[in-house]
Amino acid sequence: MVRWLTSSLQRKLSVVVTASMIVPLVALGLFAFLFASRITEEKTKLSGMDTLKQVEANLRYMLQDAENLSIFLIGERDIQQYLSRDEDHEADRLDIVGRMTNLAASKKYIANIAIYPGRFDAALSTATWYEPDGGSLFSPSLPSGNADKRWTGVYPVRNYSGIQNVITLIRPIRSIHNYRPIGWLSISLNENAISKGWPAFGLGRGEGSLELIGNTGEVLSSMDKSRLGLHVSDLEPGLITRIQKGHSGTTTYGEEERKRTVLYYPEELTGWTLVGMVPYEQYRSENSYIIILTAIAVALSALISGGLVWFTVRRVTGPLIVLTRHLSRVDPKRPLPLFRAESDDEIGKLGESYNLLGAHIESLKEEIIRGEARKKEADLRVLQAQINPHFLYNTLSSIHWIALMSKENRIADMVEGLSDFLRISLNKGQDYCPVAQEIAHIRHYVRVQSIRFPDQFVLHYIVDPALEQRMMLKLLLQPLVENAMIHGIQQAGNQGTITIMIQKDSAVERMNILVLDDGAGMELEQLEQLRASIIPADESNMLPQGSHSQGKQLGQSLSDGGYGLRNVNERLFLHYGTDALLEIHSKKGGGTRISFSIPILEESP
């Protein structure tokens, strides 16, 4: 894995950059999850406290209404007069009960209003309650002496419709004349009416619970009726100590599955405390939703980031890969491939430097080739300079006149042809000559050879007239014709034909030159050896090991014709490049075909 990673700059950059982006994304996602979880809990607490405030306002309204109603009743004149008597008056009692019944009926949360006279035994009540065992009328336990008002705890009562739980306000009725106790008033609130609207508040998204805790820790009202009348310490050990009496706030209670957030809020009139409980399971469900959203957001961000990283790394490393491919496939015989820079940044400048380097290398190669060509041509000029042209021409001219005077016409003709042949060969030191001059040079050569080898060969010329004045490297055809004559026609042992064809290839602006004979030809093995032996020195360095030594061994056994072909091939390579090298085809008994192609030149380069 490490090796695979380190072997590619693209892979390393992709992994490093992706990791550097994904790690902060994951950290950010984790932070967002923790922060969102904390906000969810705080939001639940704030919402829960608002709920407790609304519940407390409704409860305070009921309690305050009960207080106001009790004050109204204990000061009512008829009630004062009725309780001040020493015995019951049925008409007054029924009248008072009727009015209390009307008051109780107007308040749905009031379960009962009752008056207990202090001087005689006749309870006035708006509801008929019985003892739980079905006995006499039920009455709450009244305080003794001069006790002040108080609220009882929650207790069950029974009437014709069943059992209900109530909380009762009990306060003494005192005479307005001497302030002496003359009876007791009780107003009972229905616990169901108190807690009826609590589920609608949806504490903790409906998962929480609400309870009203009395001053002694007793559960006065609850959404869970099985907890009514029980002490909080028995139900939730240690919870009562965490609730600050008379203050609002939140705390955490329980562990693991029973862990809950506890919210508490005091009721001002009675000192009771409203307690709300929200299970932590709700947070977990909400946090699960948050973590799924966070994971999806992080995954999408990572995917998008990975795609952007891949795209960016490809944009950066793509040109480098192209440059690497160009450099790994360098062909010494060809120029460096051109790199197309598509930007002006560092990669683009690197590509421009690569192109400049390729152009510089190509310029150096051309300069070296020109230098080698100049060196070889200089060597040829040294050899030519060793011959005194004037002396040679004068001598040949003298021999020509002596032959004419001696009526040796064949000798005279041969000497004249040789003189013209040498004059064209030297060409005043020029490397290039017109095609017509090269053909004339061949004619003089054939003129000499036809005297030496009479009736042994016939030469045909097929030359495009449009090419006669175009320039070409001199002395290219004579070695080819000589090779065809000596190694082709003479080896066959009968009269043969040599054809020289020079045609124009308009598609590529080159002239195609062909020397064809119908002589003895060569075996395939001999042909391959000849092809290997005439390869130029610069080209032979690129041959596989063994081919070079094979060509060298054959070269030691070649005749002058083989050396002539090699010389022509090397001059073509030096002056025209690899596209101009000789192509040799031969078949035993079927003759030999030698061809090459050179550019069409208007004048000497």
Polypeptide structure, described:
GO terms for molecular function: phosphorelay sensor kinase activity. One of its GO terms (cellular component) is plasma membrane. It is a single chain. The chain is an alpha+beta fold. Among the domains are: 132 residues, 2-Layer Sandwich (Beta-Lactamase); 146 residues, Histidine kinase-like ATPase, C-terminal domain (Heat Shock Protein 90), CATH 3.30.565. It is 51% helix and 19% strand. The chain has 17 helices and 18 strands. About 3% of the residues have low confidence.
Measure the end-to-end span.
60 Å
Question: Based on DSSP secondary structure assignment, what is the total number of beta strands?
Answer: 18
Please give the CATH class of one domain.
Alpha Beta
Low-confidence stretches: 542-560
Radius of gyration over alpha carbons?
63 Å
User: Which structural category fits the helices and strands?
Assistant: alpha+beta
Q: In this structure, how is the largest beta sheet organized?
A: 6 strands, antiparallel
Architecture of one domain in CATH? Answer: 2-Layer Sandwich
CATH superfamily annotation of one domain = Histidine kinase-like ATPase, C-terminal domain
Q: How would you state the average pLDDT, rounded?
A: 80
**What coarse outline follows from CA principal-axis ratios?**
rod-shaped
Strand content: 15-25%
Helix content: 40-55%
Protein name: Two-component system, sensor histidine kinase YesM
GO molecular function, one term: phosphorelay sensor kinase activity
GO cellular component, one term: plasma membrane
Membrane topology: Multi-pass membrane protein
